[in-house]
Amino acid sequence: GTPVELGCEAEGRPPPLLTWFRGGTVLREEPVSTGLKLVWPRVEPEHAGTYSCVAENRHGRHNRSLHLHVA
To answer: Which UniProt keywords apply (predicted)?
Structure first.
């Protein structure tokens, strides 16, 4: 029931498109030059799972994943 924020940042030229995924589902996608956040004011057990952030521009693609555990 506490707040949780997941952040993703990437730099590039041109600025990358940042996308948050949970499994194969796109949660948020924006062309940003700073960062992209996922925010839950009250995290619940159904929010547990693996989340991935992908940064992509015409020069390449990079990603990071994390597993959110909710007790």
So the answer is: Disulfide bond, Glycoprotein, Immunoglobulin domain, Signal
Q: What is d(CA 22, CA 31) in angstroms, rounded to the nearest whole number?
A: 19
- pLDDT for 32: 79
* Spatial separation of the C-alpha atoms in residues 63 and 56, rounded to whole Å: 9
Alpha-carbon gap, residue 20 to 35, rounded angstroms: 11
How many Cβ atoms are within 10 Å of 51's Cβ, its own excluded? 18
25-31 and 35-40 as β-strands: parallel, antiparallel, unpaired? unpaired
**pLDDT at residue 33 in the model:** 72
Secondary element (H or E) of residue 26 = strand 25-31
